[in-house]
Each structure stands twice: as C-alpha cells, then as structure tokens.
Write a structure and sequence with these properties.
Layout lengths: L2 E6 L8 E5 L1 H6 L5 E6 L3 E11 L9 E2 L2 E2 L8 H13 L4 H8 L2 H4 L2 E7 L12 H12 L2 E3 H8 L5 H9 L3 E7 L6 E8 L1 H4 L3 H8 L4 H17 L3 E2 H8 L3 H9 L3 E8 L17 H16 L2 E6 L5 H14 L3 E5 L7 H11 L3 E4 L5 H12 L7 E4 L11 E7 L17 H11 L3 E6 L4 H8 L4 E5 L10 E6 H6 L3 E2 L2 E2 H12 L3 E5 L8 E4 L16 E3 L4 E3 L6 E3 L12 E4 L3 H11 L5 E4 L9 H10 L5 E4 L12 E6 L3 H4 L6 H13 L10 E6 L5 H7 L3 H14 L7 E9 L2 H19 L3 E5 L5 E2 L2 E10 L5 H17 L7 E6 L3
Parallel strand pairs: 2-5, 13-18, 13-19, 14-16, 14-17, 15-16, 17-18, 20-32, 23-30, 23-31, 29-30, 31-32
Antiparallel strand pairs: 1-2, 1-4, 3-4, 3-6, 7-8, 7-9, 10-11, 10-12, 21-22, 24-28, 25-26, 26-27, 33-36, 33-37, 34-36, 35-36
Bound molecules: adenosine-5'-diphosphate (ADP) and zinc ion (2 copies).
Adenosine-5'-diphosphate binds next to helix 14.
Length: 817
C-alpha cells in the first residue's frame, strides 16, 4: 500500500498538496507536524501535515517529502478545524491562515544538532543497528545534523532512532533555527568548587586581603547564598556588593568565581500575584450572577456596561473561576499596545499566569509564548492579546473575553485572512464547548442585533463604579461662535472657559481630534491648487513639526512647499486641522501648562504608547491631545474635562457605519472624564448641534441610536440585517480595472440578479499607484451564505482564468469593515 500526506503550504494557492511517504513515515507523521517539501522547480518549503492517507492523487505524481521537522504536532487538531472555518468563511486559503497563524520562526527549518553525550559510556552491544550507525558516526564527527542522519540511515524519519538514543543517554540534542533563536540568557556566578570546600574560604579571604573590593564581593556572595540558597545573578551581586562588573570579571578571570548562564523567558513577568481581586459592588455582583445564569442558556453573552462601571473587575472574577479548574483563558483586546494599564492590573491579581501576545514582540518572543500555550504551561494560562492571539494552540480553553467588542480594529484588513477576531474567537470557544463574553459600553450593532435575535444573552450595568455620575455633555455650536467671533483658532470661548477652570483646580484635560498632522489640505489662495500625493488620489497633509507634506495612505513625504506648484504664488493657506495644530493652539492658549500628544506620529516604537500614558498618569502632562487612540479603555483618574474639537468630520465620513462609529467614539472618549468622584464634563464642538447622533451621545441613549441606525440598515440593506462581501479589483492600469470590474459585476448579476452594487470607485480611487474599484454583494438574510460564497468563488476563478485579467488583484472581504 502506498502512503500519502496532504500538506498546507504557506502560499496563497487554493488547494492542499499531496506528497508520498513511506510506511514507516506514515506511522510516525500526524496532522499538525511540519515537513520540508520540494515545491516548484527547486524550492523547499516548510509545510504542515493536514492529513495522512492512502489515496494517490489523480492529477499529478506525488513527490517525496524532503524531511520531517517535528517529532510531535505543533498545531492541534482543534486549530486545524478552526483554520478550516476561517478559510471557508473568509474566502481565503489555508496557506493564508497558516502564514498569519504561525510565528515566522516556525516557517524556517529547524536544525537539530546532535552530539555525543560524553558524560556517559555506552556499550556498543547495548545499541541496535541503526542506533549504532549514528553513534559510530559521532566518533568521527563531533556533531551531526538531521539531514546527516537522514543520509546515514537512508530514511527520512529519523526521530525514533534519536529518541531511543536519548533514552539511553547516548546523545544530547541542541535545537537551532536558521534565523538564530537564542533564548535570553542571564549571567550567574558561583564560587569555584576548589574554594567552596569548608576551610578553604578562610584561605581565600586571606589571599584577597590586599584586594578589599574583591574580598567584599566574595563576602557578599557568601551572605546572599546563605540566605537565599538560590543561584546568584551577576547583576544582583554587583548591586549588593556595590562592585563594578569589572571587579566581578577579574574574579572570574582569576578562576575564583565561575560564570554560568541560565535561560530566562523573554516574555517573563514579575512572579507572584500580590493582591487579591476587588470585592464587587452590588451592580457588579448582580452582573456576575446574571452572566453565569446567561451562560447556562447562551454560549455568548454581551455585557453592556457604561464606561467606568467596572467591567474589568467582573471579568477578573470570571477568570478566577475558570483558571481554578485548570483551564485556559483568552482575553482579547483591540490594540494591545494601548493596554499597558490593563496588563499591570491583571498581573497584580494573577501574577505570572498572565502572558501577553503582542504584535510588537519579536517572532522569538512569540514562539516562546506559543510553546507555553501548546504545553499548557501555567505561565500562559491567561493570554492577553490582540486579534492574532486567536491562532494560539490552546489545549483546554475555558473562556474567551472580548473587551471593547465594538472596535473595528478586530477586523483584519490586509493581508488575507481578512478575519474578524471577535467572530473567529467565538467559533474557537465553541470548538472547546466554552463560553464567550463580549464586553462594551457601546456595543456594535452586530452584537446587539444578535441579542435581539435571541442568539446572545445580554447583561447590563447602568451604574458607574462608586455611582459617579455620567459626564455632563454639552454641545457647542461653532458656526454660531464663528459668526459672533467667539473662536480663538479652533477653540470656542466655552471650551477655553472650561479648560481654564479645570487647570486652575489641578485637573487634567483630554482633547480629541480624529486627524493627525497639522492640516489635511494645503491650498493656494491664488489658483486653488492643492498639492496631491503622486501615488494616491489624496491631498497631502501638512506636518508642521517636520515642515513636511505627508501622505497618510502610502507614507510619501516631501518638504513643505514655498510656492504653489501650479502658479508659483507664495500665498498658501491650510484647511482643516489635525492633532498637531490643536496641540500648538492649546500650548499658545495655556503657555504655563504642559501639552502632550498621542497619535500615530508620537507613539512609534515598542514602548511609544507606554511613555505617553505613564507621563499623563504621573501628571507630567496637563492637556493630552489625541486621536481615537485615546478612546480605548484608558483609566485616568484625574481627567475631569474632555473636549471633542470637531464632531463633523466623523459624522460626515462616507461609510454606512459612520454614525454608529461616531456614537461609539464620542461616548468612549467622554467616558475618560470624571472616573473617580466628581462628575466629568465633556464639550463637543460642532457645526451641526441638532444632529440626532449628537443628542444620543449627550443623553447616553444607546437604545435610541440602535433603533434609528437599525432602521437605516434595514432600509438600505446593510449589515447586520444583510451580509456584505466587498470585492475590490486593483491594478495600476486604469482601463484594466474598469473593464475587469464590469466583467466581474456582470458575472455576479447573472447569478444574483439583484443586490449587486457597483462597480464603483471608492472615495480614494488610487492608492500606491494602484487603481481600486469596488463591487458590493449584499446577501439577504434568507439567502444561503455558503452557496453565495461558492458562486462568488466560481466567478472569481473564471475571472482569473481570463488572460487579460490575470494580473488584476482581486480582494474578497467578507463582512467588510
Ligand atoms: P470599565 O472597564 O467598565 O470602564 P473599569 O473596570 O476600568 O471600568 O473600572 C473603573 C474604575 O473603577 C477603575 O479604576 C477600577 O479600579 C475601579 N473599580 C471597579 N470595580 C471596583 C471594585 N469592585 N472595587 C474597587 N474599585 C473598583
Ligand atoms: Zn496657485
Ligand atoms: Zn500616497
């Protein structure tokens, strides 16, 4: 009988590929192990075994695998099932999912180095034939690699031999990855054994009598080790004895001290929990009970709790319960970088059990966490992470929490898989027969609709913690203020009044403006020309600090112009304003106070956010200007005033979710005000003080916003009533995109008759020199989703098989955000 494996290759090709394997390999290989396989003319890829079977492929001759890379699966069966769901639901390949899921270092080939164990003498007679061959080879060569063994033994599955040699203590293994993976090592020292015998110490101290500093080091070492009986770090010793590392080095050189290294986890956190979780107040207590009851009936429950109602403390109680049963918890957050506060809060309760999966971590750090989760280690029992943490190899996931579930950043935009982490996490939890808790002060229409449809349970907290009142929200008509000359730059007299008062009594202020840079448009007052990005169809944003014009779509930048490019006039005017301008104006209005800024431009780098958040917490900043980064779950105790500089650019954004988004953003940023005792104040500046959404924000009326927005979604056939698949065609040739999109839409209309919108150019139709054209497929509630997707895939395949369209990039985005 012949044996085969189907593998997932990390390439965007639709199907799995079949390779042939031997009988022995088929007994060894399991789904979820990696193999190296030849692909294409001469490439070797790391592939993942999906299935072991006996069916010869019909269309092609199966090639042999190159090498087996794991001796146990690194991907669980549950993950493979989850990946399949993602690939089917979001119309992408398993290869796309594989790429997104695995830390990069897994896709490199792992090289195991085998050396002889010199501490043990092995009698040749105790070795089987194959073991002997390997052992014999190690007499001639100090180390062997996997592929050496493969040629020595003339077979690909060499792990059983390695394992039995390991059992006999004949060899030692060293794992090394091509991209050098080095666990972080910490330097330790101990006394050289010849000095540590009793009686020898006195001699040593005498010997060092003329080097008092070195002598001190030895004394300190002795007293520490007498107390702790633990290994002693060089850094620790240097600090305790007040000796420079150079002095310790000289003791090592003299062979009085011996240096050694121990591995330390990169992503290690301060050891033990140091605080019991908080006692819940009656509203939280009630919510906790209701959630537990709700879970008896529903797999998914939405916790709708106003800002600062203490949702986090409720999550903490649920987590305590789940981890006491030994199960794992996944706590999803929209942007991990913004949640330093939450991380340290959870660490005080759960200590080293909290692990963070961070997009800014290196792939090695992620690999470490991956292995900890895979091995079900206590130190990764609670995983806190942004969207990609749904790909971790959980073993017995007991609970998923999705905090700020309304955040659109849970949806991956580019590249494929274009998944929604909240929805994919719900599916993941269901594979473990576990529950999901969604939490928000401003739930997405999608989730609330699911509650109304009877799919999710609902629990509410309507009181803020300590019964602090919801902030007082006041709308300021800036059209009127302009007319009456009550504006100073972009600040109304009301805002200046409130700011002056807040600063006088020592409160902090947040100013929200949803645009970065200084001003988004530079215009010539003589001819009206506005400088555009050469690669995209957008005006360049002026950044005053660097005196540059920048494109926010492709990153293009150039020095600010002195003259109009069209007519040469020197009279250039700026229109619109961003965070940079707000910061400048605020500083001018309040010169004695410190004004800070938090946006994409000020938070680059691994700890960019932390620095600003900490400075604000420490009151080193009085006024913090920022973009929507400020809205996400931050807890600043001393902020009493929030100013929203301009509500209109949010409300007028061309997107069917714009009003829902505006409501969420404004309420979330308002929620940063007055979180402790006194009532907070929020000022919203707008040209449309009668806008319905602004009234709903100022009265915190989620229910009304929901009903009105759902009406619109019904009328215009948008989610969550209809489902949406957005098809985007991209090409640098304008005509190709146009003709291609027409062809595609015609194909769709033949199948679906109605509910196809477009093709249409988006508001920004060219980005990075690529023209974009969109087609929207709206799927009525009663229409089968899977049949619809099948039809789309079919049309897509025929489209891509037409020669002239082959170079057009097609992007399928399911549940477009
Ligand atoms: P939310 O996530 O609902 O906006 P938080 O969980 O951040 O609210 O809670 C708001 C504030 O109230 C935090 O500073 C938190 O420490 C405090 N808090 C919440 N619940 C309790 C409690 N039971 N005991 C003491 N302080 C609490
Ligand atoms: Zn001009
Ligand atoms: Zn650009």
């Amino acid at each position: 009988m012949q044996h085969f494996i189907d593998v997932i290759l990390p390439v965007p090709l639709e199907r799995l590929f079949t390779y042939s394997i031997t009988q022995a390999e088929s007994e060894f290989l399991k789904a979820g192990m990696r193999v190296a396989v030849p692909f294409g003319k001469s490439k070797i890829y790391t592939a993942l075994v999906f299935k072991v079977h006996q069916q010869q492929p019909v269309a092609y001759e199966a090639k042999e695998i190159h090498q087996i890379l794991d001796d146990a699966p690194i991907i669980t069966q549950t993950q493979l099932t989850h990946w399949q769901w993602i690939s089917e639901y979001y119309l992408c390949t398993l290869g796309d999912v594989l790429r997104a899921a695995l830390p990069n270092s897994f896709l490199l080939e792992s090289e195991t180095i085998i050396t002889k164990n010199n501490d043990k003498t092995i009698n040749d007679a105790d070795l089987k034939d194959e073991e002997f061959l390997v052992y014999e080879a190690l007499h001639h060569q100090s180390s062997l690699k996997l592929h050496d063994l493969i040629s020595i033994l003339d077979k690909k599955n060499v792990f059983p031999v390695i394992n039995s040699l390991l059992d006999k203590d004949a060899i030692v293994l060293q794992e090394e990855v091509y991209e050098k993976y080095k666990p972080k090592l910490v330097r330790y020292v101990k006394l050289n054994s010849q000095h540590s015998e009793s009686g020898k110490l006195q001699d040593l101290l005498e010997e060092l009598s003329r080097a008092p500093k070195q002598r001190d080091v030895i004394m300190t070492l002795f007293s520490i080790s007498a107390q702790t009986k633990k290994p002693i770090k060089v850094s620790e010793l240097s600090e305790a004895s007040d000796a420079s590392p150079a002095i310790i080095k000289s003791l090592i050189d003299k062979e009085i001290l011996t240096e050694y290294h121990l591995q330390e986890d990169r992503v290690a956190y301060s050891g033990d929990p140091n605080e019991a979780s908080k006692t819940l107040n009656i509203h939280q207590e009630k919510a906790l009970r209701e959630i537990q009851q709700s879970f008896e009936k529903y797999n998914i429950t939405l916790l709708h709790g106003v800002t600062s109602s203490g949702k986090t403390e409720v999550y903490v109680k649920l987590i305590e319960e789940v981890i006491s049963t030994g199960k794992q918890v996944l706590y999803l957050l929209p942007e991990i970088a913004l949640t330093t506060q939450l991380v340290s809060r959870l660490e005080t309760y759960f200590g080293g059990k909290v692990a963070v999966y961070h997009s800014k971590y290196s792939s090695h750090e992620r690999l470490e966490l991956w292995n900890n989760v895979l091995e079900n280690q206590p130190k990764a029992q609670i995983v806190l992470g942004a969207r990609s943490s749904i790909f971790l190899p959980f073993h017995n996931l007991g609970l998923v929490i999705v905090d700020e579930e309304h955040e659109t950043s849970f949806k991956q935009f580019d590249p494929a898989p274009r998944y929604h982490a909240r929805d994919a996490a719900i599916v993941l939890a269901s594979l473990f027969k576990s529950k999901t808790l969604l939490g928000s002060a401003t739930p997405s229409l999608e989730s609330y609709y699911n509650v109304k449809q009877g799919k999710y349970g609902l629990v509410e907290i309507t009181h803020r913690f300590n019964d602090v009142m919801m902030p007082d929200i006041e709308l300021v008509d800036i059209q009127d203020k302009r007319k009456r000359k009550r504006m100073t730059g972009h600040f109304s007299d009301r805002l200046i009044e409130e700011m002056t008062e807040a600063l006088r009594v020592g409160h902090q202020i947040i100013l929200f403006q949803n645009r970065r840079g200084f001003s988004p448009i530079v215009e010539c007052t003589t001819c009206g020309h506005a400088p555009q990005c050469p690669n995209c169809d957008v005006s360049l944003t002026f950044h005053q600090f660097k005196n540059e014009l920048r494109c926010h779509y492709c990153g293009y930048y150039t020095a600010m112009l002195k003259n109009c490019m069209a007519c040469g006039s020197v009279e250039l005017d700026t229109k619109g304003f961003g965070t940079e301008q707000v910061q400048d104006e605020a500083q001018e209005l309040f010169p004695e106070h410190k004004v800070g800024r938090m946006d994409l431009d000020t938070t680059r780098g691994k700890f960019g956010y932390d620095k600003i958040i900490t400075a604000f917490e420490q009151k080193e900043i009085d006024i913090l200007v920022g973009t929507q980064m400020l809205t996400k779950g931050l807890d600043f105790r001393n902020v009493k005033l929030v100013g929203i500089m301009n509500a209109d650019n949010m409300l007028n954004f061309p997107d069917f979710r714009a009003l829902e988004r505006s409501f969420q953003l404004m309420l979330q940023v308002s929620g940063r005000a007055g979180r402790t005792d006194e009532r907070g104040k929020v000022l919203i500046q707008t040209y449309n003080p009668h806008h319905r959404i602004l009234h709903q924000v100022s009265t915190n009326n989620y229910a009304e916003m929901y009903l009105e927005q759902m009406d619109e979604r019904h009328n215009f056939k948008y989610p969550p009533v209809y489902r949406l698949i957005k098809i985007t065609l991209k090409h640098k040739d304008y005509n190709k995109v146009n003709i291609g999109a027409e062809w595609y839409a015609t194909g769709l209309r033949q199948v679906f008759k109605s509910h196809i919108l477009g093709p249409e150019f988006p508001p920004i139709s060219r980005i990075r020199n690529q023209f974009h054209k969109n087609i929207l497929v709206k799927i009525p509630p009663q229409q089968s989703l899977s049949k619809t997707k099948k039809a789309i895939v079919k049309i897509n395949n025929s489209f891509l098989s037409i020669k002239e369209f082959r170079s057009v990039r097609v992007i399928l985005n399911v549940d477009n955000f």
